[in-house]
Amino acid sequence: MPPKKGVSAAEKRDRVLEIFHESSDVFQGKDIEKLATKKGVISQAVKDVLQSLVDDNLVHMEKIGISNYYWAFPSEASVMVENDVKRFETDLAATRKRRAEVEAALEQHKAANPDTETRAQALAELNRLKKRAAEVSSKLEAYRDNDPETVQAMHNIAESCKLAANRWLDNTYSLLSWCKKRFAGNEAELAKFFEENGLDEKAEYLE
């Protein structure tokens, strides 16, 4: 005997929605669970099914106090279907109109650009030139490091860095000179302090 087929999500939605359309009444969640169980929808799934129907505006929900009340009327469902049909028909008409415009434009383009041998040769030459341009651009990129402007820019950056380094070395020597005067007799400790912090009083200026 084949295994019993489970109820799909779509079937659960249809069965729960039938409860509302058959009675046109207002229900609490616990009432829907009881009625849905009789229709083959397990109680644990009813909450999620109800929420999906509410999200799709197929069922209304209102919270009163601590309870949620649900309702849906058959007439509302038919109105929604009619509105959907009208919207789809409008979209279909717009799509058909756009397709006709594109086809007309394509025909005009074909008429203005017939598939002649001269045009085919021109397109082939254009593709060849595009390929050649890509190859040249690739080679230029490989030689960019040797470009005079690039080299000059790197030189300018290096010069700025050198000036900044020498300026900081000036500051270091000024600080060292002040410390020696301020803490005379503690030269060894000062030298150790500067050395531990990466400050070499024998450092030379960059040329």
From TrEMBL:
Organism: Chlamydomonas schloesseri
GO cellular component terms given for this protein: condensed nuclear chromosome; DNA recombinase auxiliary factor complex
A GO term for molecular function: recombinase activator activity
Keywords, comma-separated and alphabetical: Coiled coil, DNA recombination, Meiosis, Nucleus
All copies of domain Leucine zipper with capping helix, residue ranges: 149-198
Limits of the Mnd1 HTH domain: 16-74
Nucleus listed as a keyword: yes
Transmembrane segments: none
GO aspect biological process, one term: meiotic strand invasion involved in reciprocal meiotic recombination
The protein's name in its UniProt record: Meiotic nuclear division protein 1 homolog
Location in or out of the cell: Nucleus
Family of the protein in this entry: Belongs to the MND1 family.
Role, per record: Required for proper homologous chromosome pairing and efficient cross-over and intragenic recombination during meiosis.
InterPro entries per the UniProt record, alphabetical: LZ3wCH (IPR040661), Mnd1 (IPR005647), Mnd1_HTH (IPR040453)
Coiled-coil stretches noted in the UniProt entry, renumbered to this chain: 85-146
